[in-house]
What we know:
By secondary structure, the chain is an alpha/beta fold. Helices cover 38% and strands 20% of the residues.
Amino acid sequence: MSEVIHTIEQMKEFSKKAILAQKSIGFVPTMGYLHEGHLSLIQKARSQNDIVVVSIFVNPLQFAPNEDFNTYPRDFEKDRILCEQNGVDVIFYPGYEEMYPQSYQTYVEVSFLSKPLEGKSRPTHFKGVTTIVLKLFNIVKPTRAYFGKKDAQQLIIIKKMVEDLNLDVEIVPCEIKRDADGLALSSRNVYLNAKERSQAICLKKALDKAKELIDAKIYDSQTIIQNMKNVINSYDLARIDYISINSTDCLSELKEVVLGKTLISLAVFFGKTRLIDNMWI
Ligand SMILES: Nc1ncnc2c1ncn2[C@@H]1O[C@H](COP(=O)(O)OP(=O)(O)OP(=O)(O)O)[C@@H](O)[C@H]1O
Ligand SMILES: CC(C)(CO)[C@@H](O)C(=O)[O-]
Ligand code: BAL
């Protein structure tokens, strides 16, 4: 049985006891509506720790007023069953007032890394992410925390926050899980209609094109990006938000791909639905 905990006090008490008993805690923060991507993080946490905690919290702070906070998919009962089937010990499922009481006023920001890429399109997003993740770390006190490479910039930012604030948690990156046709799994895929869904593979196709060029030793970023744009633009429902080639350490734009140090990432709209994908070279 997965225990469901709603309050910060009870969650802290649980972790305190586990730490006193010298048990390691693997933590998977999520916004729920779990899919195989989340489950792969949970399974990794299960294999490396004595205790697995999953948080489910759709964090209002990381959504801008024009974004999809209200319509973000939620299905706690299904999530609970999936957690149970995957050996999760505790589901931390707090309410909004619990995490952000009326008097709330403290925020955490990783300044430079939060600005490019997703940060350009979503300027307040990462401040919301780092604030809630630090709060969750303080409450759950994990030994290890698991983050998907699908949200590449988020992973890089969280690692930096852990380094800068001297947090005692190991960040474990996890590979991107994809549908059979290559589309990266995402809770937001549920917004796509049938035609959009069939065209959504263009993100992966564009990344495959980039990989093909790099394998042929073409490293010039402009050439790679132009080729990726051509792929996306051949799908009539897709609208490019950005395609970018950046260094994995400071996220600065690269004129040329540097093997082992490059992130190629993109965001593409299908109607109002915004999908992201990336490849670490
Ligand atoms: N396809 C995936 N493969 C691996 N990890 C993933 C995948 N999708 C999400 N994750 C990871 O799961 C964690 C929780 O993500 P979240 O709940 O936002 O899911 P999501 O599917 O990315 O949702 P969204 O549609 O909001 O992007 C994050 O660390 C995220 O990177
Ligand atoms: C890390 C996270 C759970 C913080 O709300 C969220 O950004 C997510 O699901 O990737
Ligand atoms: N996985 C990222 C959460 C968000 O888009 O808000």
